[in-house]
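Pasting as-is:
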Amino acid sequence: MNDYDEKGRRQRLQVWYDELPPSANAIYFNGTRLTDAAREYKERFRQYLQQNYGHQLQEFVEPNEKYTDPKSGEVKSLKTKDANLIFGIQLVFYMDCLTTWGQQDIPRSRRARFRFAKTDLTNRIKFVEDCFKSVVDIDDSLTFFSQEMKIHSPQKTGVFIDYYVVPVEHFQVPRLME
């Protein structure tokens, strides 16, 4: 896949953030409200991506095109107005605590009882998608393909995000005329 289409729009955005998200138990209270820790993580994530990937974010999909929302009066990005755009996302979580079994230097209470530690992957996925969505301004309902994995990485922890345009035809969605 090319990073740019024939109109010069960026089709792929790959980012690295060197902080793992909190687990689900530390993200929400009362079911839907973000905890202070989750809100702070989301803000650090947003700032980091804007500071380190600002240029790529600006040219992703529809560079520098804006419109005024008739209901709210807000100036918004045209990124989600192209009805033929759908997306895929790959999330790779690099974690340093997947295999703590038998490691004497880790307190017994934090050691895995079996070979793998109880480090849940799935409860972090939606939160990272929401953090990312808040930066790229593309509704996550436009994500048609998703792949996630966790990798044992004692030297480097964080999350790698690969977000890209997927041809609508791959999902049997009819292309609308442009």
